[in-house]
Amino acid sequence: MRNISKQFLLVLTIMRLLHLNKPLRLSASLRGLTFYLKDYLALERQLAGANSPFSIASFYPCVHERHEQSGGASGHYFHQDLLVASRIFDHGPEKHVDVGSRIDGFVAHVASFRPIEVLDIRDLPRDIRNIRFTQADIMSENFNLKDYCDSLSSLHVIEHLGLGRYGDRVDHEGHLRGLRQMHGMLQRGGKFYCSAPIGEQRIEFNAHRVFSVPYLRDLFEKDYRIDFFSYVDDSGKLIENASLSDGAAKANFHCRYGCGIFEMTKR
Length: 267
What we know:
It is a single chain. Helix 3 (76-91) runs parallel beside helix 4 (103-111). The protein has helices at 2-20, 26-48, 76-91, 103-111, 174-185, 213-221, 247-250; strands at residues 96-99, 116-120, 131-135, 149-155, 186-198, 202-204, 208-210, 224-232, 238-239, 258-266. It has two domains: 2-67, no CATH class; 76-266, Rossmann fold (3-Layer(aba) Sandwich). The strands form two sheets. The chain has an eight-stranded mixed beta sheet with strand order 3-2-1-4-5-10-8-9, with helices on both faces. The protein is 34% helix and 22% strand. By secondary structure, the chain is of the alpha/beta class. A hairpin with a 5-residue loop joins strand 8 (224-232) and strand 9 (238-239).
């Protein structure tokens, strides 16, 4: 009776798995289920003939990993986080501050080898080694941290400013306001690392803006010397130290939704 109940539960679990799966992954699920059932029967036979402290109590099918790569090593966040963290390690600034970047990606990378101060409009109720957190609205008129640091980062942030997604006030020039505040934070000669989506210029409300490469280049060149520019293309591949002066840049490096990564020095 116990085996019948377990087999019935297994059938229900498989049916639920197939129902919830996206159509594009259905064939992969069916292929994975063949191995899943084979392995389940093998484990059941082993447990039946052994004095094991374990038994199969429930079912949690993981049927895709067998046919996938060992991990994701592409995309905007993977490349920008690793690239910029390594540049900060190389430069060894006295005080590095981040505005709004991903905590469980870039900030964690940097915190693994040095202190980092983080400003974000949302709270972070954690005490984490090497991370000093301050809740702050970079768009606020009361924000004032003049000449605060010699190294500053803001990765995949400016596209959100002023769209209300994270509780910030709606402002069609929010990205400009935020960039002005960050420019004031950085000391003369300091390094600024900034990334944002690149492609045909547009707003996809309320997720983000997408910037054209010439727009960002012209915007940054007013206040900074652009030292290096890299980008992640639509396929998730990183292209390092790309030229911003050729036709490819004018065409946004043929990206619909890429990621431009700027390393700059304040003039």
